[in-house]
Amino acid sequence: MTFVKLAAAAALAVSATTATAGGLAPEVVEAPVVVVDAPAPTSSLAGLIVPAILLALIFVAATAEDDSMSD
Questions:
Q1: Alpha-carbon distances of 18 from 7, 22, 37, rounded to whole Å
Q2: What distance lies between CA 24 and its chain's CA centroid?
Q3: What values do phi and psi take at 51, rounded to 5?
Q4: Is the full-model pTM beyond 0.85?
Q5: Spatial distance between the Cα atoms of 25 and 55, rounded to a whole number of angstroms
Q6: DSSP character for 22?
Q7: pLDDT in tens, 38-65
Q8: What is each CA distance from 60 to 46, 54, 63, 66, 67, in whole angstroms?
């Protein structure tokens, strides 16, 4: 029975030392993650005015009389 106690004590000692085999390392503390909300997009008339001007120019060019072919 003493051999069983000795073997159990040896197994317990070995398992306790393997848990800290690498030694104690300093604790790694990571910086907290900061989530920044993007500002809401603002409405701009430039997004509508430029295409409207381009459509107007195309319309004027398409409806203009072509004087180069007339005699």
A1: 17, 8, 47
A2: 34
A3: -65, -35
A4: no
A5: 69
A6: T
A7: 877 776 676 788 889 999 999 998 888 7
A8: 21, 10, 5, 12, 15
